[in-house]
Write a structure and sequence with these properties.
By secondary structure, the chain is mostly helical. It has 22 helices and 2 strands. It has a two-stranded antiparallel ribbon with strand order 1-2. Helix 3 runs antiparallel to helix 4 (about 70-90), helix 7 (about 125-145) packs antiparallel against helix 8 (about 150-180) and helix 10 runs parallel beside helix 14. The longest helix has about 30 residues, at about 150-180. The protein starts with a helix and ends with a helix. The relative contact order is 0.10. NDH-1 is composed of 14 different subunits. Subunits NuoA, H, J, K, L, M, N constitute the membrane sector of the complex. It is found in: Cell membrane; Endomembrane system; Membrane. It is an enzyme of class 7 (translocase).
Length: about 475
C-alpha cells in the first residue's frame, strides 16, 4: 500500500492542498483570495517536485488502475505549469473587470481539475480514465461560468456542460462496448482482446471511445463547443482551457491508442487521420472570418490539435515523442498569446477582444505587438521561431511511418492556416492606429511571463531541443 501511495504522490499533494485551501476559503472568505491563489501555485510546485522517484518509476499502482511512468510525468509537468500560470494571471483580470471579483474557490477548482488531469494521463484502466476525466470536466464546467453576472460566461458554462455530458455519454457507451466484448476494462487485457480475433462490437466500441476523446481535445467533428466557450469564459479560464486540459486529453488519447488499442492501429489510424486533416483544414478556414481574437485562438487550437494528431497517426515511438514535443511548445505559444490578450483593455479597464482594436498596435505599444507577432508566427510554424520545429517533427514521424501523403496534406494545411495569423500581424503593423487599447495597466508578473514565453519560442529556443528530445523519447518509449 505504501508503494502505491508513493506512486500517486502528485495527486495526493494536490488533493490535500485543495481540501485544506477549501477550508481556508470557507473561513477566510473574499479576503483570503490572494493568499489561497499563491498557496495553490506552491501546491502545484510541490506536486511537480513529487514527480521524481516512484511517481515516474514505470510501475503500476492499484492493480493496474494507475501508471506511474515517464510519459505521465512529462504531461503532468506541462499541466501543472499551465495551471499555475492560469492561477497567477487571474487576480489582475478580475480586479480590472467590474461586476465580479475573484473568489478563493477559483484556485481550488484549478487544483481539483489538475487532480483529474493527472488521473487521466496516468490511467491504466477505463474506469480510472473515466473518473479522472469527469473530475476534470466538473471543475471546468464551473470555471467556464465563473463570472455569474456575465451572460456570456453563464452561456459558455451551460453549453460546455450540455455538450460535455453528451460526449461523456458517448465515451461511456464506447467503454461499455469494449468491456462487453473484451471482458475487461484494463488496458493490457483490452490490448490482448484486440490482438486476438476480435468482433465487430469491439471495433464499434473503439470508434465510440475515440469519438468521446475527440470532444475533449476539440478535434473536428466534435469541436462545436470550443469557439463559444473560449469566447464566453473569463480570459484566464480560456487560457487554462486552451493549455492544460488540451495536454491531458491529447496524452490520454495517445495512451489509449498505443497501450489499450495498439494491436488495432490500422483501425484507429483511419479515425485519427480523418480527425487530424479535418481539424487542420476546418480550423484554418473557419478562423479566417473571425472578428473576435479569442474565437480566432479557439480555431487556432483546433488547427494545432490536428497537427499533434499527425504524430499519433504515425503510431510509432517517434510519433508519440513528436506529440509530446508539439504539446510542450504549443502550451508556451498559447499561454503567451492569451497573456497578450489580457493586456487588451480600454481606458476603463474593460477587456477588448476585437481583432480590429489591434490596428496600429505596433505604434502605440510596440513591445506588446512584437510579442504577439512572435506568437502568431510561431503558431503558424514559420521559421526561425520554435513553432516550426514540432511541426517538422510530426511530419517527419508520419513520413517515417510510411504515411507520406498524410504528412504532405498536413503541410498544405499549415500553409492555409498561416493566413489568419498573418492577418493579425498585418492589422498591428500596417493599419492605422485604432487607439482603443489603453497603455500600461498590466502587472509586472504578466509582462515577465510574456517575455519568458517570447524568449522560449524565439530562435534561442532551439537550444532546448538537445535536452528536450531525449526526455520526450524516453517518455514515449515507456508506452511501448
Amino acid at each position: 500500500m505504501t508503494d502505491n501511495l508513493l506512486m500517486i504522490l502528485p495527486e495526493l499533494v494536490l488533493t490535500i492542498g485543495a481540501l485544506v485551501l477549501m477550508l481556508v476559503a470557507a473561513w477566510g472568505g473574499q479576503a483570503s483570495t490572494r493568499a489561497v491563489s499563491w498557496t495553490a501555485v506552491a501546491v502545484l510546485a510541490g506536486a511537480a517536485i513529487s514527480l521524481g522517484g516512484p511517481a515516474t518509476s514505470g510501475a503500476t499502482a492499484f492493480d493496474g488502475l494507475y501508471r506511474a511512468d515517464a510519459f505521465a510525468g512529462f504531461a503532468k509537468m506541462l499541466i501543472y505549469g499551465a495551471t499555475a500560470v492560469s492561477i497567477i494571471i487571474a487576480p489582475g483580470f478580475f480586479a480590472r473587470t467590474s461586476g465580479d471579483d475573484l473568489r478563493p474557490e477559483y484556485p481550488v477548482l484549478m487544483l481539483l481539475s489538475a487532480v483529474g488531469m493527472g488521473m487521466m494521463v496516468s490511467a491504466g484502466d477505463m474506469l480510472s480514465l473515466y473518473v479522472g476525466l469527469e473530475l476534470q470536466s466538473l471543475a471546468a464546467y464551473v470555471l467556464a461560468s465563473f463570472m455569474r453576472r456575465d451572460t456570456r460566461s453563464a452561456e459558455a458554462g451551460l453549453k460546455y456542460f450540455v455538450l460535455g455530458a453528451l460526449a461523456s455519454g458517448i465515451l461511456l457507451y464506447g467503454i461499455s462496448l469494449v468491456y462487453g466484448f473484451s471482458g475487461s476494462t484494463g488496458f493490457d487485457q483490452i490490448a490482448a482482446a484486440f490482438a486476438a480475433e476480435r468482433s465487430t462490437g469491439l471495433t464499434v466500441g473503439l470508434v465510440f471511445v475515440f469519438a468521446g476523446l475527440a470532444f475533449k481535445i476539440s478535434a473536428v467533428p466534435f469541436h462545436m463547443w470550443t469557439p463559444d466557450v473560449y469566447e464566453g469564459a473569463p480570459t484566464p479560464v480560456t487560457t487554462f482551457f486552451a493549455s492544460a486540459p488540451k495536454v491531458a486529453a491529447v496524452a490520454l488519447a495517445v495512451r489509449v491508442a498505443i497501450e489499450a488499442m495498439g494491436p488495432a492501429t490500422v483501425d484507429w489510424r483511419q479515425i485519427v487521420i480523418f480527425a487530424s486533416l479535418a481539424s487542420i483544414f476546418f480550423g484554418a478556414v473557419a478562423a479566417i472570418g473571425q472578428t473576435n481574437v479569442k474565437r480566432l485562438l479557439a480555431y487556432s487550437s483546433i488547427n494545432n490539435i490536428g497537427f499533434a494528431l499527425i504524430g499519433l497517426g504515425a503510431g510509432t515511438p517517434e510519433g508519440a515523442a513528436a506529440v509530446l514535443s508539439y504539446m510542450a511548445v504549443y502550451v508556451v505559444m498559447t499561454l503567451g498569446s492569451f497573456l497578450v490578450v489580457l493586456q487588451m483593455r480600454g481606458s476603463n479597464g474593460q477587456p477588448i477582444e476585437t481583432i480590429a482594436s489591434l490596428s496600429g498596435l505596433s505604434r502605440t505599444r510596440p513591445a506588446l505587438a512584437a510579442a504577439l507577432a512572435m506568437f502568431m508566427f510561431s503558431l503558424a510554424g514559420i521559421p526561425p521561431l520554435l513553432g516550426f520545429w514540432p511541426k517538422l517533427a510530426v511530419f517527419w514521424a508520419a513520413t517515417n511511418a510510411g504515411l507520406f501523403g498524410f504528412a504532405v496534406a498536413g503541410a498544405v494545411g499549415s500553409v492555409v492556416g498561416a493566413y489568419y495569423y498573418l492577418k493579425i500581424i498585418k492589422t498591428m503593423y500596417f493599419d492605422a492606429p485604432a487607439n482603443e487599447i489603453a497603455k500600461g495597466g498590466g502587472s509586472a508578473v504578466e509582462y515577465a511571463l510574456i517575455g519568458l514565453a517570447a524568449l522560449f519560442i524565439s530562435p534561442l529556443g532551439y537550444l532546448l531541443i538537445a535536452p528536450l528530445a531525449p526526455v520526450t523519447a524516453a517518455a514515449a518509449g515507456s508506452l511501448f
